[in-house]
Amino acid sequence: xxxxxxxxxxxxxxxxxxxxxxxxxxxxxxxxxxxxxxxxxxxxxxxxxxxxxxxxxxxxxxxxxxxxxxxxxxxxxxxxxxxxxxxxxxxxxxxxxxxxxxxxxxxxxxxxxxxxxxxxxxxxxxxxxxxxxxxxxxxxxxxxxxxxxxxxxxxxxxxxxxxxxxxxxxxxxxxxxxxxxxxxxxxxxxxxxxxxxxxxxxxxxxxxxxxxxxxxxxxxxxxxxxxxxxxxxxxxxxxxxxxxxxxxxxxxxxxxxxxxxxxxxxxxxxxxxxxxxxxxxxxxxxxxxxxxxxxxxxxxxxxxxxxxxxxxxxxxxxxxxxxxxxxxxxxxxxxxxxxxxxxxxxxxxxxxxxxxxxxxxxxxxxxxxxxxxxxxxxxxxxxx
Length: 384
Prior knowledge:
By secondary structure, the protein is an alpha+beta fold. The protein folds into two domains: 2-165, no CATH class; 226-383, Histidine kinase-like ATPase, C-terminal domain (Heat Shock Protein 90), CATH 3.30.565. It has ten helices and six strands. The relative contact order is 0.07.
């Protein structure tokens, strides 16, 4: 963990020095070119030279622009600096440092009089323009390359994370199917089990009877619960999440009834419920019970059902994060700070032409997904 923090700081330093160096060089070179052109064309100075006063003014204006650039990019770069491994931070920092080194060498050469020449026949004025223009062009290309690399790598990491989580959900779904199959096989053999239990009862072998009943309960996972959604796979998933919440001392309230002819596939239902509940459990886990008061504790509330020919799923949970959140994913916006899982939820909702909303009110995080149930919506989408 300590090494990861050090590597993150190295990347943060690399990004900061890269932004400052590139933006400053670009601005200084650009403003210097403009000033030389102004002095030559407007002021009619044959061979203009930038003095200390003009150079100082250009440097100050460039510094203001650098500060604005750092402030403007700070929030966007926070996502790049969060949730990654140490090796990823170093792999991203190295090219940035190389770009900064190239610009530093170019500046050093210019300070030593190594200018980009016009060929020797056009005079000092054009030599200055070529030199400043060359550094300006190099800085612009470097800014584009650095930005493309940083944000491109961040997007690649995000897609890989989504893919990894998606495959994990496939494995979890198959596990749920296997548990459901075991329960079905037990029900199929129920007649034989009843015969065996009757025999143990008649022989008064209570110890074997006790163990037999225990084995049956474990095989079928017959623990009583409040889940009765109309879909047994979703029932098993909700029961697992409820057990997790109970172990973490999280209050659980669940009212879910799936439509009889639900167009959403079982796997997609598990993606929706699984990711939303995982995020809710994680958020509640960040809360300390004493911070909520003696009589209060973290809670999760799940409600789902049919509302005006639509399937509505809403999850509410305690949340310690500050600020208001309001995001409409139907417009294609990407969630910030709510976990990779919500990207998979968004993909499922959009696949069924639905909408999703996020908001927070007085320490309660609320997320809702609305999916239309009318067949015409899906038929139109499939034929388009």
